[in-house]
């Protein structure tokens, strides 16, 4: 479904992403891991066209994303969250999801839904349920705990009903029980039909939910495989698992 083919991004002299190729198949949860500065967020930024590629090709459902503008990416069915939380703190939890849902103007399959207010509300309620935020729906986003704010980011990503949801470090700074809830949420989203590309340093999360793990190191792909195989890989352990920040 998503195919990255030899993608390269240079910033001045830095090869932030240096010839990376991998695929994400429909319905899969793929994790992208690697040490700080290994090019994970840049890869997401290339997929969503925050930056143009230096070289290589990215296709999504056989469509070349390389020529699309950032604001058009959402209409292809790709949504993302950001490493730094970006919420409207002066709006309620419900309103934050609603604002995100309204961005989905061009996503034809669901256009109908968002014209009907009742259906929009039902959809938002459904998402808040998946993200364990029902009880907080009327609270201001600014009053949420860290874990709740992260889950609200995920809810906002889900609001556009994406085919592919990309999460950039959703578990960063979370407590153990918050990570447990996030694992639950991610599994529910997958059961609902979402395909997920997950970046995180929190290996409890990654190794629990991902079916396949891609490891980056210095902008290059170091390894790819099922979680157990990645955890046992000596090169990965040396590059990453020994220096993990959790
Ligand atoms: N806009 C930019 N301008 C210049 N250099 C950048 C830019 N964005 C990223 N870089 C550099 O590219 C490299 C990869 O950064 P990136 O943010 O993709 O790493 P990351 O794997 O997401 O790391 P982290 O785990 O810390 O989030 C780093 O050396 C970073 O400094
Ligand atoms: Mg990053």
Report on the structure:
This protein is α/β, with parallel strands linked by helices and 246 residues long. It has a single domain, classed as Rossmann fold (3-Layer(aba) Sandwich). 37% of the residues lie in helices and 24% in strands. The chain has ten helices and ten strands. The protein has helices spanning 40-47, 70-73, 93-102, 108-115, 117-130, 146-158, 176-191, 203-209, 227-232, 234-239; strands spanning 2-11, 14-24, 29-33, 55-60, 63-64, 78-80, 164-168, 195-199, 212-217, 220-225. It has a six-stranded mixed beta sheet with strand order 6-7-8-3-9-10, sandwiched between helices. A four-stranded antiparallel beta sheet has the order 2-1-4-5, covered by helices on one side. Helix 7 links the parallel strand 7 (164-168) and strand 8. Adenosine-5'-triphosphate (ATP) binds at residues 11, 14, 16, 34, 36-42, 83. Magnesium ion (MG) binds next to helix 1.
